[in-house]
Structures are given as C-alpha cells and as structure tokens.
Amino acid sequence: MSMFLDTAKIKVKAGNGGDGMVAFRREKYVPNGGPWGGDGGRGGNVVFVVDEGLRTLMDFRYNRHFKAQSGEKGMTKGMHGRGAEDLIVHVPQGTTVRDAETGKVLTDLIENGQKFVVAHGGRGGRGNIRFATPKNPAPEISENGEPGQERELQLELKILADVGLVGFPSVGKSTLLSVITSAKPKIGAYHFTTIVPNLGMVRTQSGESFAVADLPGLIEGASQGVGLGTQFLRHIERTRVILHVIDMSASEGRDPYEDYLAINKELESYNLRLMERPQIIVANKMDMSESTENLKVFKEKLVANYDEFDELPQIFPISSLTKQGLSTLLDATAELLDKTPEFLLYDESEMEEEAYYGFDEDAPAFEISRDDDAAWVLSGDKLEKLFTMTNFDREEAVMKFARQLRGMGVDEALRARGAKDGDLVRIGKFEFEFVD
Fold it and tell me: CA 208 from chain center: how many Å?
C-alpha cells in the first residue's frame, strides 16, 4: 500500500476562554471590601505551520481531531487566568485548506514556516471586578468564557514543482525523470507503474535549476475520476510549464497525435486554466525504428490542425534510454520557466473573505421557531453566545441575561408571535416559562 496521502478531512476546535470569577476582598483591616474576581484567560488558537520536512498528509490519516487547550479561570485578587498556548499543527508545503462546509479556500500554504490560524480561541469571561458600578458596588456577576471556534476542514496537498511531466501510462515519464534528476521512481513495463507523484531537481549545464514532478499517467476520462483521475490532476495545478511526453514509437498501438489531443482534453476538462500553462512536446523513444516517420506525421497533423494565430508548441525529439536530446530539452525548459510567471491557483470567488469573528451587523440577533411540543425556540449566533457566556449559578447573572433578552426585543417578538403567560421557551437545552 502506498504511504503517499494527499487529501484529508479533519476537525479542529480552538480552546474556550476561561470563566471569570466572583470574589470579594476579605482582608482584616479593609472594611466593606469590594469585588476582586479576575477575568478568565484566552483559549488557545489552532495554528497550521508549514514544515518543509513533510511530504504527505499521512499524519492526518489516523489523527483527525485537533483540540486546543482552554484558558484558565479567573482568580481572586483580580488576577487573570493564564491564557492557553496555541496548538501548532505541522503541514507540508503546498497544502490548500478549505472549509468543508462551504468549500471556500481559507489559505494556500506554500512557504516554509508560513502560519495560518484556522480556528480562533475564545476570549476569557469577565470577573465581577469588571461589573462594579456606583449603583452596584458589590456585583455577584461574572461571565463564562467564550467558546472557541470549531470547524471541519478539507486539506489538499498539491506538490510544489516548476515543471510537470504529463502523458499516457508507459510513455517514459519515470525513465525521463530518473535520467535528468537523482530521483529514483519505480520503473516497469506495465501501466500505472507510478501511482504517486515523484519529485526531482534538475540542474542544467548552464547552472540553472528547477523542480520536476513525474505525475501518474493519465487515461481518457481521468478528469471524471477514471484511472488515477483527479488523484493526479490536482498536482499539476502548481506547475508553470508542462512537458507533454509522447511515445513517438507508438509501441502501445495508439496514434501519437491522438494521445496528444486526448491528454489535453483531460487537462482542459479538469481545469480550463491548465491550458494557460505553456507546453513543450517531448517526443520520446526516438531510438525506435518507427519513431522518425511517426514524428514527421505528428508534425504535419499538428500544423494542419493548429490555428494560424496560435504559436505552435516546441517539439524536442529525445530518447531517455540513450539520453539523446536531453540537454537541449532542459535548456529550453529553463528558458521558458524564466519568462513564465506564477499562475494564480484560486480566484476571489473561491477564497473565503478575510475572517471576521464578531457578529454580522446585518444578521438578525435572534430567530423564533416552534417545537413539536409547542415550545417556543430561540436561536441565533448573538443570542446563543450571550447564553453560553452567562453564569446561571448566580441570580444576578440570570437577571442580567433576562434584561439583555428584553433589550434585544425578544419579549416583544414572542408576544407578537402569540406567546402567552406560562408558555415554555427553549434555548438549546435550557427551558424557562414566558412571563407576560
């Protein structure tokens, strides 16, 4: 079984904020000691950090849940609870992080050491020292800590390579990689010898260097998942130049030009923007007797079917076995890389807007619905957050929560919906009676 893993779905949970404390000064010589309860500490964030030593997402195969520590509770003498440390999760270079629920891209992690907070910890609840007023100098109110952010993420690894080798199975991509780099891909006389991407560094005679990825062979229907399908195609998205390797000897009984059209069709079907990348056609296996004549026919078909306004791709005859034409191919590839910019992987519609962890001012503060048992159900992010951060062990806190509901217009909205004295009102699992 291959140990290469390039997709994973995980759950992350940031730490909750620590609860605030209710406390009072009790020193012997301090009469009428006031409130002295401190705030809770902030919960830890979940932070992704790029580690260039990782090559796959294998670490996420068996560990799919990541939870940061919560902040400490507030303490007496007005002391704050200690904030929790962030949970650091290492990911390989080239990892794209999506929100599994919305499908939006949160970040694209490509630089070593790059950091991104995927879940923010909750702030600590306020202690009673923060609620003292001239009218209420000794409040018995404190807040619970804010819940940490929780979300499900989809991770995709798209390897970092300047050049991608594409082509049908057994056209010689792995052999080519093995002779132009120090990589040791598996080579065999059967289809799909390569089942995971292989990466190698090329250094030309002029001293230029670039990374080349040998990607698993394509077949027709790959863009719809046939064969290795999208397991391969996602990895070509980062490349700037495509080397389209074609078996010019037609040893498999296929027409080289039809192979060329079929592979380009799969690239276009998967992502039209892949066709923006410049291609170099690599006519491989030129040491075979039929290859020269097949190359001549291939060029004729290519010219005949190309638009006169389009620039014909360069064609380089090579033999990976005899190493014929390799230095010319590599020099041309390096030259093309120098004038080819980076391609933007995601447009604005695919990216999640800059994260905002407050409340949407345009969103309703609460919603009212009816349960099967005729109870009124209150919901909404703002209301549920107030509820979660209310310490119901303290009567003053409960009264404060009731005033907050009234200030939000909950009482009037329930009356308008037909709520009567004694009706059951539910927030989550908490129930109370409506008093008109």
Answer: 32
**58: Cβ contacts below 8 Å, ≥ 6 apart:** 3, 4, 5
d(CA 231, CA 65): 24
52 token code pair: 């260039």
DSSP code per residue over 373-410 = TS-EEEE-HHHHHHHHTB-TTSHHHHHHHHHHHHHHTH
Burial of 240 (0-12, 13-18, 19+ CB in 10 A): middle
Amino acid at the residue 170: S
pLDDT tens for each residue of 348-375:
666 676 544 444 555 678 999 999 999 9
Whether residue 337 contacts residue 162, with contact meaning beta carbons closer than 8 Å, is answered with yes
Burial (CB < 10 A; 0-12, 13-18, 19+), residue 293, is exposed
DSSP states of 272-294 as a string? GGGGGS-EEEEEE-TTSTTHHHH
Structure-token pair, residue 98: 């999506």
Strands 241-247 and 163-166 come out as parallel
| Interhelix angle 173-180/326-338, nearest 10 degrees | 90
C-alpha span between 406 and 414 (Å, rounded): 11
Give the relative orientation of helices 395-408 and 381-388 as an angle to the nearest 10 degrees.
170
**With contact defined as beta carbons under 8 Å apart, do 333 and 239 qualify?**
no
Cα→Cα distances 225→220, 222, 231, 271, 337, Å: 10, 5, 8, 13, 30
pLDDT tens for each residue of 307-335: 765 788 999 999 998 999 999 999 999 99
Query: Would you say residue 275 has pLDDT above 60?
Result: yes
- Residue 45 Cα distances to 104, 129, 325, 410, angstroms: 20, 27, 53, 33
Question: Residue 321 and residue 179: Cα distance in Å, rounded?
Answer: 8
Task: Label the pairing between strands 241-247 and 279-284.
Answer: parallel
Indicate the pairing of strand 314-317 with strand 279-284.
Answer: parallel
d(CA 31, CA 224): 78
Which pLDDT tens digit goes with each residue over 83-142? 999 999 999 999 999 999 999 999 999 999 999 999 999 999 999 999 999 999 999 999
User: Rounded CA gap, 436 and 433, in Å?
Assistant: 10
